[in-house]
């Protein structure tokens, strides 16, 4: 059993960024474990032409340390692609290139160990014991002072479809695995209205419009809304707004976040335009194609179709009219989002809020149920405590700066105090402020 200062559980972009920022911090002994055999970022959605929805500066390290050898620009330089990128003149890079960049970084960091699944994290005197099953089936035990959970998310599937998952009904996370089944089907239904849904619909239109494919696109949301991408809106994805949001009462945070979906969900303007243009061009010399899309429709049931030549009958509830209707299809793609995955630790060890969610302090520590000082950190599971920036790649380096400084016990990476023009909270708005009125938690 070896002694470490920190163990990272999972190696998505956020923990990979932490490993990269920790590399020059030689007095912090770190190891990061990932069950997958190599780094892979949303492989089921690596569609041709898909780009990041954030600028390339939102790489693993730049917003904390632009001089790091693990920056995206240095990756391009080492690959001999810097001039080509210069002439490319794009702020949003291909998703495939971001994945290739991250794989190269992962391969250069000895602390990153793939093919190693963390099975449990249990408390020991003064720290934690981490059990790791390696590729050969053996189990290693590592003793560590700190643990950083970066276990990511898992696909969320509507209850009516859970028992029928397979090659004909699948989550968008597996789209490329089953794409051939979808693009060759006579009738396809896409559920959801976010970016993944839009990219899949565009792909199906490009491949299926000329074949006469019948395409349904339904969402529970009230419409197919574009994601907020104005400069003033983007100021919510900053350390300042994160600190302001965390300082609000828990029930106020929930209320605020309930109105912010389009800050981090929805379609990119480019994807929406691409879909509309494909439909428009398809009608230049032809009638409307067999494409139906509508908002406010909630999936209620999935059953075998009685219609000859069709596989499934989907029952829908129209939220505005309160009426139900059904449509038949062959393939169903569920672009219904993700939920945070549970970390491999006894949930009873963690303190919970009024809604049963983990309590996470401003420094990204998971609060412990016994009130003891916590040495557990979390990545991208703090949407309810830190706000809409939690899953955003652009804030990953900042969060990792906070974590690195806590692990090292000193300021390794300065944390910016002023990053935007907008002001959040009364402390920044007035020379003097009244005492806040007592807030009653309706829960």
Automatic annotation (TrEMBL):
UniProt keyword annotation of Chloroplast present: no
Cofactor(s) named in the record: FAD
Alphabetical keyword list: FAD, Flavoprotein, Monooxygenase, NADP, Oxidoreductase
GO molecular-function terms, A-Z: L-lysine 6-monooxygenase (NADPH) activity
InterPro entries listed in its UniProt record: FAD/NAD-bd_sf, Lys/Orn_oxygenase
UniProt superkingdom: Bacteria
EC number(s) on file: 1.14.13.59
Class in the EC hierarchy, top level: oxidoreductase
SUPFAM superfamilies: FAD/NAD(P)-binding domain
Pathway involvement of the protein, from the record: Siderophore biosynthesis
Catalytic activity entry: L-lysine + NADPH + O2 = N(6)-hydroxy-L-lysine + NADP(+) + H2O
Matches recorded under Pfam families: Lys_Orn_oxgnase
Family: Belongs to the lysine N(6)-hydroxylase/L-ornithine N(5)-oxygenase family.
Protein name, entry field: L-lysine N6-monooxygenase MbtG
Phylogenetic lineage: Bacteria, Bacillati, Actinomycetota, Actinomycetes, Jiangellales
């Amino acid at each position: 059993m070896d002694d470490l200062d920190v163990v990272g559980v999972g190696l998505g972009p956020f923990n990979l960024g932490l490993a990269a920022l920790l590399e020059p911090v030689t007095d912090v002994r770190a190891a990061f474990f990932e069950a997958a055999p190599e780094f892979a970022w949303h492989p089921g959605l690596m569609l041709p032409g898909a780009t990041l929805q954030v600028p390339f500066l939102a790489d693993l390290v730049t917003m904390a340390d632009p001089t790091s050898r693990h920056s995206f620009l240095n990756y391009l330089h080492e690959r001999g692609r810097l001039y080509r990128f210069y002439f490319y003149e794009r702020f949003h890079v291909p998703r495939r290139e971001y994945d290739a960049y991250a794989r190269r970084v992962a391969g250069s960091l000895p602390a990153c160990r793939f093919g190693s699944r963390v099975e449990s994290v249990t408390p020991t005197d003064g720290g934690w014991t981490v059990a790791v099953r390696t590729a050969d089936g053996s189990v290693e035990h590592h003793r560590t002072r700190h643990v950083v959970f970066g276990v990511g998310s898992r696909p969320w599937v509507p209850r009516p479809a859970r028992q029928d998952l397979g090659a004909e009904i699948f989550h968008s996370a597996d789209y490329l695995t089953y794409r051939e089944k979808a693009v060759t089907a006579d009738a396809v239904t896409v559920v959801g209205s976010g970016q993944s849904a839009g990219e899949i619909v565009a792909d199906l239109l490009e491949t299926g419009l000329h074949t006469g494919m019948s395409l349904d696109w339904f969402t529970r949301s009230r419409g197919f809304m574009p994601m907020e991408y104005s400069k003033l809106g983007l100021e919510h994805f900053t350390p300042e707004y994160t600190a302001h949001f965390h300082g609000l009462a828990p029930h106020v945070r929930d209320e605020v976040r309930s109105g912010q979906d389009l800050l981090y969900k929805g379609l990119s303007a480019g994807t929406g335009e691409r879909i509309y243009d494909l439909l428009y061009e398809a009608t230049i010399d032809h009638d409307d194609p067999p494409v139906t899309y509508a908002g406010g429709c909630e999936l209620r049931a999935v059953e075998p179709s009685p219609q000859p030549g069709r596989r499934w009958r989907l029952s829908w509830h129209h939220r505005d009219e309160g009426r139900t209707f059904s449509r038949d299809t062959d393939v169903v793609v569920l672009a219904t989002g993700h939920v945070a995955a549970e970390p491999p630790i006894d949930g009873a060890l963690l303190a919970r809020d009024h809604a049963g969610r983990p309590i996470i302090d401003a420094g990204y520590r998971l609060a412990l149920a016994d009130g003891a000082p916590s040495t557990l950190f979390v990545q991208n599971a703090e949407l309810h405590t830190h706000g809409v920036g939690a899953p955003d790649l652009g804030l990953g380096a900042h969060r990792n700066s906070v974590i690195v400084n806590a692990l090292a016990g000193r300021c390794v990476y300065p944390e910016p105090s002023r990053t935007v023009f907008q002001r959040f909270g009364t402390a920044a708005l007035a020379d003097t402020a009244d005492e806040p009125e007592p807030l009653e938690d309706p829960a």
